[in-house]
Amino acid sequence: MRYRLFGQTGLRVSEILLGTMGLGEDARQCRRVVDAYADAGGNVLDTASAYGNGEAVLGEVVERRDRFVIATKYTLSRDAKDPNAAGNHRKNLVLSLEQSLKRLRTDYIDIYWVHLWDRHTPVEETMRALDDVIRAGKVLYIGISDAPAWVIARANTLAEWRGWTPFAGLQVPYNLLKRDIERELLPMAEGLGMSVATWAPLAGGVLSGGSKRVDPKTLTERDHAATRAVRKVADELGATPAQVALAWLRSKSTKVLPLVGVSSVEQLTENLAELTLPGELIEQLEGAVEFELGFPADFIAECEPHPFAFGDAATKVDGR
């Protein structure tokens, strides 16, 4: 296992993150998976306040607290009947954090994620409240999940101007079938130096072909085309479809950190295997599944080499 720096911080995180939502209520199985992950060099355990009893189970099984980077999230409702028990405002942040600290049996959270953009809470309130809990020593680093690029860019710009702690990470869905983040979110993260933790890297089991949750009747022709392409490459390389799907993901950007969810040590071992895809196989995979960046990315790419847009030196300027 190799390590990456988390955003523009000095925090070392393993190149594959472990999502614990699927480990459920089984503390014994959770302990086996966490131990196997740690033995392989993994150090990031990702959970959330809304993952049932997940935080409490994780708090029960983690023994070497200082060796792990524990990440959890807030935003989603703690009490459906209480209007202030959800959202990104200060009240929910403080109460959710205290609840998570107790469940996880820890004095601090390494990475605290905003779970979902709350359009009713000013981003200034969220960023200042997050900076306060960092200054109090209850949180070390922050990230945001499932939000528009413009919101994140504005939040980090405000943090920079006002001396607050910026988001170091972004958590979003990303896989061969769902490449939406390549339009705005991934370029933004790369531009701001943010790490990108990608959930659903196997498209909910569609790309691995091994999930019992996937009903074949619900799969589209696009889904089938992707699975055929992944299986073909896997057969050619003597790998599994899951390994190919994860290798494709990791080839897209050095900022990408796949967030894998498993239910057994066997699944974990499969997902941690090292695999590098040749360029021609990456093209083969992407050619099997139609995807367009759309406007403005495609339009800008078309304009860049033309003298009409950038003068006679348009094709003579080397990029950064």
TrEMBL record:
Keywords: Oxidoreductase
Annotated Pfam families: Aldo_ket_red
Keyword Coiled coil: no
InterPro entries with a match to the protein in the record: AKR (IPR020471), AKR_Detox_Biosynth (IPR050523), NAD(P)_OxRdtase_dom_sf (IPR036812), NADP_OxRdtase_dom (IPR023210)
Keyword set includes Nucleus: no
Domain of life: Bacteria
Sequence ranges assigned to domain NADP-dependent oxidoreductase in this UniProt record: 15-287
Protein name in UniProt: Aryl-alcohol dehydrogenase-like predicted oxidoreductase
Native source species: Kibdelosporangium banguiense
Organism classification: Bacteria, Bacillati, Actinomycetota, Actinomycetes, Pseudonocardiales
